[in-house]
Amino acid sequence: xxxRNPAEQLGxxxxxxxRLGLLVGPIQPAQVVRxxxxxxxxPFEDWLTKxxxxxxxxxxxRNQWPQTSQVGTAAIRNLDGQADYAALITLLCEFDRIVxxx
Length: 102
Known about the structure:
YqcC-like_dom, mainly alpha, single chain, 102 residues, YqcC-like_sf, YqcC family protein
């Protein structure tokens, strides 16, 4: 059965980012970026930990989710072919499905 709780899915995404060593320590406030997914400003992996995750937790705290999410699609574009990131890509794609089903 598919998880339907985006906040619970965020916990799984956070755990995977930590397992991969991409997130260490507490989650910091979201950094400001001027481009979608931080393109041209920072690596996608940094965007996930410094922008996506803090903003997504803020959305969870307010229970105000966007109508659409494309973080999974962005993950495929940026991380595809890197076997270590397969589970993360799957979790992010599932996050998209959960958010869009709300």
